[in-house]
């Protein structure tokens, strides 16, 4: 028995819609699972100050004279760019796969936003497994220096790996996962808040 051609087209269209819908539901569920994972900040590191790579600095003695002169000039110009690298660990405590198509983030210190960015990368975390990812935030350090907490900022620059000093800065990372819906990318409703 032969089906009319228009029935075949209708059947093919239905199959495409069903396949797309199932794929979309799967991606939404995987994103929901991602939001339910356990998050922790593994390491926060100041990696750039002005045009100087300060990722290996451990004290004020590590700052060279040329770096000091360059930082002084940038300070006088009213802008002192800095970059912080934040390593985040995700642990999937659920029974099914967690996955996202990417995410955006915001960096806060004491409830004031200092910068953010976007990570365009597929992240997948299987049940009972962990995954690490890194976000780098660029901001104007002079904005912090006018925040009235100069000592904490100096501690941040020279001893950022000290957990006690880090906690005083009250650093918070807020992330918003993305998931694909067909050919478009949609944002997860709400933010996930991560603290050291």
Question: Brief description of this entry?
Answer:
This protein is of the alpha+beta class and 196 residues long. It contains 5 helices and 11 strands; from the N terminus they run H-E-E-H-E-E-E-E-E-E-H-H-H-E-E-E. Helix 4 crosses helix 5.
Write the topology of this structure.
Blueprint: H1 5-35, E1 38-49, E2 52-53, H2 65-77, E3 81-91, E4 98-100, E5 102-109, E6 112-119, E7 123-125, E8 130-140, H3 141-145, H4 150-158, H5 163-169, E9 171-181, E10 184-187, E11 192-194
Antiparallel strand pairs: 1-2, 1-3, 3-8, 4-7, 5-6, 5-9, 9-10, 9-11
Helix pairs in contact: 4-5
Entry keywords:
single chain; 196 residues; alpha+beta; five-stranded antiparallel sheet; four-stranded antiparallel sheet; 5 helices; 39% strand; elongated
């Amino acid at each position: 028995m032969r089906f009319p051609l228009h029935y075949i087209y209708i059947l093919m269209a239905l199959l495409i819609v069903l396949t797309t819908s199932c794929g979309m539901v799967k991606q939404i569920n995987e994103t929901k699972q991602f939001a339910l994972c356990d998050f922790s900040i593994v390491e926060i590191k100041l990696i750039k100050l002005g045009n100087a790579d300060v990722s290996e600095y451990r004290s004020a003695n590590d700052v060279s004279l040329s770096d000091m002169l360059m930082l002084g000039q940038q300070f006088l110009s009213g802008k002192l760019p800095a970059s912080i690298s934040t390593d985040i660990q995700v642990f999937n405590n659920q029974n099914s796969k967690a996955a996202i198509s990417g995410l955006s983030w915001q960096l806060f210190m004491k409830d004031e936003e200092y910068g953010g960015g976007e990570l365009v990368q597929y992240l997948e975390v299987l049940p009972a497994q962990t995954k690490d990812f890194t976000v780098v935030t660029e901001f104007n350090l002079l904005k912090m220096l006018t925040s009235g907490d100069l000592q904490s900022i100096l501690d941040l620059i020279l001893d950022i790996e000290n957990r006690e000093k880090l906690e005083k800065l009250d650093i918070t990372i807020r992330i918003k996962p993305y998931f694909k819906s067909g050919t478009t990318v949609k944002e997860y409703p709400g933010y996930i808040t991560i603290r050291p």
